[in-house]
Amino acid sequence: MPNFYQYLDHALVVTDDRMDERAFAFGDGFFSTIGVHQGEILFAELHRDRITHGLSIFKLNLETDEMMTALSQLADHMTEGMIKIIITRPKQSVRGYGFLAAQPAQVFIKVMPSAIYQGVSFVKGIPIQPTMARQMVCLTHKLSHRPPHLVGMKLIGSIEQVFGHAELLHRQRADDSILDGLVANVHGEWICATMGNVFYRLGQDWYTPLVDKSGVLGVMRRAVIQSGLLGDVKERVLTDADLDLIDGLITTNAVRGMTAMSMLNGRKLAHTFG
């Protein structure tokens, strides 16, 4: 039998077998973060679709409808706040990275009651954060080009987001007007914010970057496109040449909803939404 230790405060401490959890060892899984308002899951069907897709890609088995019912019960009990769900492969006898067959999914759930929607308006079920001064800046950290079957997935192995958000925190220490950062991929295409997807306005039209190589296909991104709140949104590559032409910029997040930026890289944006 193996023994497990943690090196903590200059000493070896006996610990549990969490090292054998595939989520811990390999980042083998995906997650979703869910907003709850008035006891209801925001866009439950879109979260269900995301989870069903993830299960298919990871070859995991789960009674999704039963689990969504359980999540709805948690939402009803908490009234307002957020739920985080991590779905991963259970421990197995096979050594190393691989797996031999589809297995029952292992599901971890964290419930965080909080009055997160105080002062937030809702339009077509979408949370709209109040208008205020918020700046977005372009970050230097780059997202990788993912293999096709993993494009758009919200993976628990999120090291790209870890370093991107660390850069944002460093920038925020020097300038507290910065709310979020715009992140490009290794091809120089601007993809998303550190905490969600983005929509940008050129002329009279709204666009959102393609998520065909990098980034996450967010639940709120899909909800905003379906809602028609920004008109007929088109997917389009966002390049360096567009940055000085953008006159409106919005981030979307499954919990926070829509958040309009007032500045991009120190330049005031003419159009705000909120």
TrEMBL record:
It comes from the Bacteria. Coiled coil: none annotated. Keywords: Lyase. Pfam families: Aminotran_4. The keyword Lyase applies. The keyword Lyase applies. One of its GO terms (molecular function) is lyase activity. This is Aminodeoxychorismate lyase. It comes from Moraxella canis.
